[in-house]
């Protein structure tokens, strides 16, 4: 199989093979897959086409594309180049039209985007306890955009959607993580890898890929994280509440309920009217179904009188905002359109921080000083504050606090959690009412404190 730089003069001079050889193939050094087959009676242009089959490239063999001198060197080389380009797109140029169509459909079904869509549909069925909020994080990690009407700025993963999944290599994962690290988003890089791993394992089990590109990453490749420990002081909690009072939007009752109940922000923001029971009775409660909680287990939150008042005000505000003749079925308590709940709390949190900074500067300006900014906080820090203060103030015993915030650890973890199925409903109610009274005492309200639980 000689390799030569084929020229018009050389092609003309190449002679027939000897008696021992029936034919000889001469391959072009300019286009290696292209060549000339010289036989005893004719000279034929040939090309070797390699077609991608699943995760491998296979060669269907050498194919004739014309005879010399009916087709000259330039024409033959251009035709060979076109055939090779066609093969690079996943088509076998020598197969039937039907075979090419089937192959194209197979390639499209094996793209990163198509397989991540399938994974996002199938994965929750295997993980019964997985919540919608967790699946939204999977969506962000695998699609590059949030699964909302306000997707925000896409991540580099959005550019992978049309790529065959077999082409995603370790270097692509490294480049993706580096893009987060370069923006000092080290925790986001860790989460990105954590959410991509189950997807590639899923592909590997279905023989869609030969190698898992995330398999070689270990704990040494993970960025160091600092556990968040931000807890509001009593004075800061008062500042936050007073700033919430000045919001004047549907987010005002949302943040007040974060403080009064200690529940997760996504659970409060997505509160539905049919989850609320006995608001006018002696034992009002908020029942969260399993699909709305992080651990996938139903959770009951007894409501203190102060929390009931906030919820009723929110329902009245909703009545004023929503035209129920146009939107007859609006399940959410906190909504501005009736078509979805309020969602992310990042923007209103910024408004609260701005209001606090303004109030501090105004107070400091009266004595000619510069105000100290409040240390950075997030809505989740409110939940940590509720838990911490309940422990610190002796409002409830540790296992009751865990039951209040629906946190599985300590007394509710492992074997103890399997055998201890107690709801602690009376204790949870006493704890939340005592906590609400404590908050209102901080605000200067005339509220009688309940005795310490336990």
Give an overview of the whole structure:
The chain has 454 residues and is α+β, with helices and mostly antiparallel strands. The protein folds into three domains: 3-105, 2-Layer Sandwich (Double Stranded RNA Binding Domain), CATH 3.30.160.390; 112-221, Tyrosine recombinase, N-terminal domain (DNA polymerase, domain 1, Orthogonal Bundle), CATH 1.10.150.130; 234-442, hpI Integrase, Chain A (Orthogonal Bundle). 45% of the residues lie in helices and 9% in strands. The protein is built from 16 helices and ten strands. The strands form three sheets. A five-stranded mixed sheet has the order 1-2-3-4-7. The chain has a three-stranded antiparallel sheet with strand order 8-9-10. Strand 3 (34-39) and strand 4 (43-48) form a beta hairpin. Helix 6 runs antiparallel to helix 7. The termini are far apart. The model is unreliable at 54-58 and 447-454 (pLDDT under 50).
Characteristics of this structure?
454 residues, alpha+beta, Double Stranded RNA Binding Domain, DNA polymerase, domain 1, 3-stranded antiparallel sheet, disordered C terminus
Instruction: Give a count of the beta strands, DSSP E runs of length 2 or more.
Output: 10
Strand content: 5-15%
CATH topology of the largest domain: hpI Integrase, Chain A
Q: Strands of the largest sheet, in order across it?
A: 1-2-3-4-7
């Amino acid at each position: 199989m000689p390799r030569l730089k084929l020229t018009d003069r050389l092609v003309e001079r190449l002679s027939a093979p000897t008696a021992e050889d029936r034919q000889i193939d001469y391959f072009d050094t300019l286009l290696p897959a292209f060549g000339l087959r010289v036989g005893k009676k004719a000279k034929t242009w040939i090309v070797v086409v390699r077609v991608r089959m699943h995760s491998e490239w296979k060669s269907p063999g050498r194919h004739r594309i014309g005879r010399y001198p009916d087709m000259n060197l330039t024409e033959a080389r251009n035709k060979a180049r076109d055939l090779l380009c066609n093969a690079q797109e996943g088509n076998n140029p020598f197969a039937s039209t039907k075979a090419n169509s089937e192959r194209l459909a197979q390639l499209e079904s094996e793209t990163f985007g198509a397989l991540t869509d399938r994974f996002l549909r199938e994965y929750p069925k295997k993980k019964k306890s997985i919540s919608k909020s967790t699946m939204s994080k999977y969506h962000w990690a695998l699609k590059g955009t949030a699964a909302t009407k306000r997707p925000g700025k896409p991540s580099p993963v959005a550019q992978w959607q049309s790529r065959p999944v077999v082409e995603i290599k370790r270097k692509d994962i490294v480049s993706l993580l580096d893009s987060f690290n370069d923006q000092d988003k080290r925790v986001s890089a860790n989460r990105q890898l954590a959410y991509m791993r189950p997807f590639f394992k899923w592909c590997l089990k279905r023989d869609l890929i030969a190698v898992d590109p995330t398999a070689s990453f270990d704990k040494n490749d993970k960025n160091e994280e600092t556990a968040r420990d931000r807890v509001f002081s009593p004075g800061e909690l008062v500042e936050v509440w007073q700033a919430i009072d000045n919001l004047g939007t549907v987010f005002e009752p949302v943040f007040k309920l974060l403080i009064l109940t200690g529940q997760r922000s996504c659970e409060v923001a997505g509160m539905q009217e049919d989850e609320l029971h006995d608001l006018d009775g002696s034992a009002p409660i908020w029942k969260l179904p399993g699909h709305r909680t992080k651990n996938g287990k139903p959770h009951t939150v007894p409501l203190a009188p102060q929390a009931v008042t906030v919820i009723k005000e929110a329902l009245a505000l909703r009545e004023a905002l929503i035209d129920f003749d146009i939107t007859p079925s609006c399940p959410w308590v906190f909504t501005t359109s009736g078509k979805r709940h309020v969602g992310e709390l990042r923007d209103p949190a910024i408004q609260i921080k701005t209001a606090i900074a303004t109030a501090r500067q105004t107070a400091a300006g009266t004595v000619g000083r510069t105000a100290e900014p409040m240390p950075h906080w997030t809505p989740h820090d409110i939940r940590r504050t509720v838990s911490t203060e309940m422990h610190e103030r002796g409002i409830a015993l540790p296992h009751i606090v865990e039951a209040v915030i629906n946190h599985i650890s300590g007394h509710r973890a492992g074997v103890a959690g399997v055998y201890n199925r107690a709801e602690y409903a009376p204790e949870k109610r006493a704890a939340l009412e005592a906590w609400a009274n404590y908050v209102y005492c901080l605000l200067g309200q005339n509220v009688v404190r309940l005795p310490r639980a336990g």
